[in-house]
Specification:
Elements (H helix, E strand, L loop, with lengths): L17 H8 L3 H10 L5 E2 L5 E2 L2 H15 L5 H38 L15 E8 L20 E8 L2
Antiparallel strand pairs: 1-2, 3-4
Helix pairs in contact: 1-2, 1-3
Length: about 160
């Protein structure tokens, strides 16, 4: 027996043939073929290469129709809108996962507590902040040291480690 929670029966399941999808979307099947050729809505394919539309595809077709008829957006504009909406969804998902990772890292750090210092040397596991310092030679051009001394015209860049608080 098939389980209704089976992902193959979800909104992304390619189950509708083109005539049914066209009727559900209120369009002519030829319009769906054109949208497929333009890459606006790309249905799945059956083993015999026949198009199979999902409920998500039908919802997208309805959105395309609304943008075209009610908003007056041309097909190139509609395609770009759909691409940007897809990109926003992906970025929102990425932000969600990164926020979860950040929260987990914060919890791990707070559980660890503050490590004790011994004579200013960072303890294993402590965060260390690196600071880059650039020293420029401000001496008069006639009083500059010879090249090769490390403090020529370009300056000297050094790094120092400071333990984080």
């Amino acid at each position: 027996m098939n389980d209704v929670n089976d992902p193959s029966f979800g909104v992304d399941a390619p189950v509708y043939v083109i005539s049914v999808a066209a009727e559900l979307a209120g369009m002519h099947p030829q319009t769906l073929r054109q949208y497929d050729r333009l890459g606006i809505v790309s249905p799945g394919r059956a083993s015999g290469r026949g198009r199979r539309y999902s409920m998500r595809d039908v919802q997208t077709l309805r959105q395309v129709q609304r943008l075209s008829q009610e908003e007056g957006v041309n097909l190139a504009g509609i395609k770009r809108i759909l691409e940007l909406e897809h990109e926003v969804e992906q970025l929102q998902e990425q932000v969600f996962h990164l926020a979860n990772e950040l929260e987990a890292a914060r919890r791990a750090v707070s559980r660890r507590g503050r490590p004790a210092h011994s004579e200013g040397v960072p303890v294993r596991g402590e965060l260390v902040r690196r600071t880059r310092v650039t020293i420029f030679n401000t001496a008069d051009p006639d009083e500059r040291p010879e090249r090769g001394s490390g403090l020529g015209n370009t300056g000297d860049t050094r790094e120092s480690g400071q333990s984080g608080q």
